[in-house]
TrEMBL record:
Gene3D superfamilies: Glycogen Phosphorylase B. It comes from Chitinilyticum piscinae. It comes from the Bacteria. SUPFAM superfamilies: UDP-Glycosyltransferase/glycogen phosphorylase. Residues 28-202 form the Glycosyltransferase subfamily 4-like N-terminal domain. CDD domains: GT4_PimA-like. It holds the Pfam family Glycos_transf_1. GO terms for molecular function: glycosyltransferase activity. Residues 225-339 form the Glycosyl transferase family domain. This is Glycosyltransferase family 4 protein. Coiled coil: none annotated.
């Protein structure tokens, strides 16, 4: 699209507002999608404006900045260490103020929101269409078996939190002009939150950065990378990526490694409240030397590049961005099948390209991992070509444009 007026003077680029609760340097599927969508909008001639929070771990970030052509505004999530109960109220006041300011100063074409809380406020306060790209739903995502809780008080607080998040899930679905989900199981979950969403719920797919997530250039390069990362050079290396909570199934993956030959090792990338318990489980299972905890890293692509097999062990995963990162890195994928006790989209994404466990157990997972044979480079490149052909951020941007600004959907 042209960005020059008839008179020859620079023409203001149309603004697309992207809102959420967290953003970089936090790393996850939501933050990843916002970053890549924003860059796609820059390339397409738009001015993306991000409105995101600054959770406690990142509360030293500037309130306003421009990075790579993307304008970023941050509402304050934490102000007082003593009067903590007042922080949510202060956050809402700040969010409301910034939404009003951006509505007045930026006049966005439409808004794309990736958080139910922020989407609700965006839909109420903005005069443009709001598209809610749902990351998940609390009724499923925050089930007791998918979270961490010790003691009656913590369990009670988690139930209260789940109910509050469910209320905002419902509000976001009701108030947004359009809703986008990334998998069929998310469509079903959205309908369970509010049946009326079926009339405005669109199924799309996220993208994956195939430049960032790519296989090692050679076997020698992979071995050298393992040395740099402190990983065993000669092992058959299994990779798991995600937050250390019950829903990720990393306990089953560690138990699976315990029943595999000693030539197999596991690296877990991520962190979370279950880390101590997972490390203790590795000791108890006698595989602590074969299980490597990398922690939260800024360059997860290096671990994909160093690995031989990726395992999606999650019991609840609305989509599984890590699956797309794995196939972009040419890795074979092992997963559970979706069923009564498992919610995921691996079959929807990969069909028979993945290897599936025969049942939801450590033994089933181990058997599936063992079934993955050493393969030619061509097999890995076939998986990578699937990522390149089907999962692009530009395609998602075009879907959002068609919903929010139909006259600009071809850009």
């Amino acid at each position: 699209m042209s960005v020059v007026s008839v008179a020859g003077a620079p023409k203001a680029r149309p603004v697309v507002l992207l809102t959420s609760y967290t953003y970089l340097p936090a790393y996850g599927g939501v933050e990843n999608s916002l970053r890549h969508l924003a860059l796609e909008y820059v390339r397409a001639g738009y001015q993306p404006v991000l409105l995101v929070g600054d959770p406690p771990a990142f509360d030293t970030l500037p309130r306003h900045e421009v990075v790579d052509g993307v304008e970023i505004w941050r509402f304050r999530c934490r102000r007082w260490a003593v009067l903590k109960l007042l922080n949510p109220l202060a956050m809402m006041v700040d969010l409301v103020g910034l939404l009003r300011r951006l509505r007045r100063e930026k006049s966005p074409l439409f808004c794309v929101s990736r958080n139910q809380f922020v989407a609700t406020f965006s839909a109420v306060l903005l005069s443009c269409p709001v598209i809610y790209v749902a990351p998940g739903f609390a009724l499923e995502q925050q089930r007791p078996q998918n979270t961490v809780g010790h003691g009656c008080l913590r369990a009670l607080l988690q139930r209260v939190k789940r109910r509050i998040h469910h209320c905002f899930d419902y509000a976001a679905l009701r108030l947004a002009q359009q809703v986008v989900v990334f998998s069929k199981n998310m469509q079903a979950q959205a309908r369970r939150v509010w049946a009326g969403v079926a009339d405005k719920c669109v199924l799309s797919k996220p993208g994956v950065d195939t430049d960032r997530f790519a296989p090692a250039a050679s076997a020698a390069a992979k071995l050298a990378l393992r040395g740099e990362l402190g990983l065993p050079k000669q092992a058959r290396l299994i990779l798991g990526v995600g937050r250390f909570v019950g829903a990720k199934g990393f306990d089953l993956l560690i138990d699976a490694v315990a029943s595999l030959p000693e030539g197999y090792s596991l690296v877990l990338v991520g962190d979370g409240p279950n880390r101590d318990a997972l490390e203790a489980l590795a000791v108890q299972a006698g595989v602590r030397e074969r299980v490597h905890f990398a922690g939260k890293v800024a360059t997860p692509e290096l671990y994909y590049r160093a690995a031989d097999i990726f395992v999606m062990s999650s019991l609840y995963e609305p989509l599984g961005q890590t699956v797309l990162e794995a196939i972009a890195s040419a890795l074979p994928v092992v997963s559970f099948r979706a069923g009564l006790t498992v919610t995921n989209a691996t079959e929807e994404l990969l069909a028979d390209v993945a290897v599936y466990a025969r049942d939801v157990s450590a033994a089933g997972l181990a058997a599936a991992i063992a079934a993955v044979q050493l393969e030619s480079d061509e097999a890995g490149l076939t998986r990578r070509s699937l990522a390149e052909a089907r999962y692009t951020w530009r395609a998602l941007m075009q879907t959002l444009n068609a919903l929010g600004a139909p006259d600009k959907a071809d850009t």
